[in-house]
């Protein structure tokens, strides 16, 4: 199959792809990208496979460093040429086209792995919709692609959780049971990755998870409950200052209880405890405490009075908003 690619890609392009100069390799890759886009438009899938096979066998598996570099940048070019072409067909009106688009993207992702990440948000958005596709074959193909993309994300160091969260937040209010399962699955997978701090973004999708607890599907309720239980355990294992950061204004009704718990710790004999207590106190102070939202001034004053008689070496301050009239 690799030999067939020699008639597709000009010899000069292949020579430049293994050149010692980066600019020549880059320009060769751009030409390959253009060739692959033309092949994709024409439906020449076997020729595209031949190009990929050539890049792997003659370049990325080569003992020569410049060949390997050229092979990798060439595969990246194939990814750009194919992924953008295939992804736009994931929402085609014809179910067979959607199926083949999933199949094509699966084969691309399986080869290029980490380079697939740059298209993650676009692919995720499409997979979210395909999870509820009316065609069972399309759903099955989408599930296979979804599992592969999950594997790629969990092993990648280039996945951006910051760019992904807004997209997840937009989808959390969808009521379709298949989409809900899809979303909880992704939340659970991402939370299992050590380098991804899903807990820090919990407020962005917490309401959506809570809403799923009342879903008519027992399976969805179980999945949402399991995800929430895992986050609760993580919160329990985190210092209280992290909990306060996450809760923000939602903790206003419990302001006095938290304050009463941390104030004695500010003068604790253990330095680490004192540091966490002070940090928590600072986090509490920046919360906009509105009496109309459950902020109990009387309870706060009682706490302040109780501890003001002790020489603990700190000042009590809080940010209280006057109720609007």
Textual characterization of the structure:
With 325 residues, the protein is mainly alpha-helical. Among the domains are: 1-87, no CATH class; 248-308, no CATH class. It contains 16 helices and no strands. The chain has helices at 2-5, 11-17, 22-42, 45-60, 65-87, 95-112, 120-130, 136-155, 161-171, 177-191, 202-212, 218-236, 240-247, 255-262, 271-286, 297-308. The protein is elongated, with a radius of gyration of 27 Å. The termini are far apart.
Radius of gyration over all CA atoms, rounded: 27 Å
Distance between the termini: 78 Å
Element-by-element helix/strand order: HHHHHHHHHHHHHHHH
Structural class: mainly alpha
- State which percent range the strand residues make up: under 5%
Mean pLDDT over all positions: 83
Beta-strand segment tally: 0
Spans of 5+ residues with little confidence (pLDDT < 50)? 311-316
Helix content: 55-70%
Salient structural properties:
325 residues, mainly alpha, elongated, Vac14, ARM-type_fold, Protein VAC14-like protein, ARM-like
Topology:
Blueprint: H1 2-5, H2 11-17, H3 22-42, H4 45-60, H5 65-87, H6 95-112, H7 120-130, H8 136-155, H9 161-171, H10 177-191, H11 202-212, H12 218-236, H13 240-247, H14 255-262, H15 271-286, H16 297-308
Helix pairs in contact: 2-3, 3-5, 4-5, 5-6, 6-8, 7-8, 10-12, 11-12, 13-15, 14-16
GO cellular component, one term: endosome membrane
InterPro entries: ARM-like (IPR011989), ARM-type_fold (IPR016024), Vac14 (IPR026825)
Pfam families: Vac14_Fab1_bd (PF12755)
């Amino acid at each position: 199959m690799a030999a067939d690619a020699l008639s597709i890609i000009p010899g000069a392009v292949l020579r430049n792809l293994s050149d010692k100069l980066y600019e020549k390799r880059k320009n060769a890759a751009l030409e390959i990208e253009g060739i692959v886009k033309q092949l994709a438009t024409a439906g020449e899938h076997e020729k595209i496979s031949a190009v990929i096979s050539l890049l792997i066998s003659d370049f990325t598996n080569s003992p020569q460093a410049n060949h390997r570099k050229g092979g990798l940048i060439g595969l990246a070019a194939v990814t750009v040429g194919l992924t953008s072409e295939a992804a736009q067909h994931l929402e085609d009106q014809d179910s067979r086209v959607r199926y083949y688009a999933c199949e094509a993207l699966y084969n691309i992702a399986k080869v290029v792995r980490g380079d697939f990440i740059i298209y993650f948000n676009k692919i995720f958005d499409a997979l979210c919709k395909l999870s509820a596709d009316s065609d069972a074959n399309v759903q099955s193909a989408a599930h296979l692609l979804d599992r592969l993309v999950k594997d790629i994300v969990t092993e990648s160091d280039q996945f951006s959780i910051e760019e992904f969260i807004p997209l997840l937040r937009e989808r959390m209010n969808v009521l379709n049971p298949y989409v809900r399962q899809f979303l909880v699955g992704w939340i659970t997978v991402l939370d299992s990755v050590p380098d991804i701090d899903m807990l820090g973004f919990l407020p962005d999708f917490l309401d959506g998870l809570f809403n799923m607890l009342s879903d008519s599907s027992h399976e969805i309720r179980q999945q949402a409950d399991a995800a929430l239980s895992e986050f609760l355990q993580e919160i329990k294992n985190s210092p209280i200052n992290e909990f306060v950061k996450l809760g923000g204004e939602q903790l206003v009704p419990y302001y006095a209880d938290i304050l009463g718990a941390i104030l004695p710790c500010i003068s604790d004999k253990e330095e680490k405890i004192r540091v966490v207590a002070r940090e928590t106190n600072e986090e509490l102070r920046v919360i906009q405490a509105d009496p109309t939202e459950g902020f109990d001034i009387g309870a706060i004053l009682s706490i302040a009075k109780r501890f003001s008689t002790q020489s603990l070496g700190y000042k009590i301050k809080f940010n209280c908003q006057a109720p609007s009239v």
